[in-house]
Amino acid sequence: MMLEKVRRWLRFNLFYLGKPPWDTGITPLELFDFLAASQPGRALDLGCGTGTNLLTMAEYGWDVAGIDLAWLSVWRSRRKLREAGYVGRVINGTVTGDYHFEAPFDFVLDMGCFHGLTQAERHIYRKKLTKRLKHGGTYMIYAHRKTEPDHDHGITDEDLAGFGEIMSLVWREDSGEKRPESSGGRPATWARFQRKK
Ligand SMILES: C[S@@+](CC[C@H](N)C(=O)[O-])C[C@H]1O[C@@H](n2cnc3c(N)ncnc32)[C@H](O)[C@@H]1O
Questions:
Q1: Which CATH architecture has domain 2-195?
Q2: pTM for the whole thing?
């Protein structure tokens, strides 16, 4: 477990020494659709990378916060927000860690973080989500589907059902089917949940 965490930390930090393939600087249409249809509030991006989506959400009037384990991505996120004239809180740490936020969030986004967690971490992540997401708030996830049975990477329908304990599924799209280019050709899922009131 510890070794796995260290390997992940090293892998992502090394990725950000260069330009990781996911770091396109483009916010996906799925997020734009949600932002266009929503009233701004407080948003948290779990595994925020270099802050592309933090910036987009800030531009839509959201008060943003992010967490990422890679220090270089956190540094770039902070710079991206600052240079565009926005204030946001970007934490260098793990999404399963204990961080104090002034208040729970109206919107929690996860694009590509949850699918890399171990089963034990997924359990902790869900518990934290109940503290971090307001009642009535929205949780949106983009994740690769699990394709290799003996490897943790990817999500299953059971993972999605696990969120159902505290939230209701309002939208789901298996993007590998409709827009394969949006997931680098690999099977992936978008889902949006609303926390029960
Ligand atoms: C595939 S990248 C996606 C980044 C960003 N969401 C985007 O769409 O550009 C996954 C991100 O999650 C971060 N990450 C992975 N595991 C994490 C963890 N346990 N806690 C915090 N961040 C994590 C990585 O450092 C990386 O920036």
A1: 3-Layer(aba) Sandwich (3.40)
A2: 0.95
